[in-house]
# Entry
Amino acid sequence: MNGETQNTEIKITEFDRFDFEQALLECWKVTNDIQLFAAQQAGEKELAVLSQYYEHKFQALWDQFENGVRKQKIQ
# Structure
């Protein structure tokens, strides 16, 4: 990456119902990740990182939902 930061911002300006459904299903992986972390006896720091990761994912999903409602693509 040559010292450059990669932009990982989720674009929510244009999406359809399929995109929203996919984002919702992606968030459902939290249960698998919790089981994996538990099996590996993850510590407090690792669990905090996992929690923060999913907080960002769910916030992006919520933003996508609100945007869809505002644009009347989700009713």
Observations:
- Residues 17-70 form one domain.
- The longest helix spans residues 44-70.
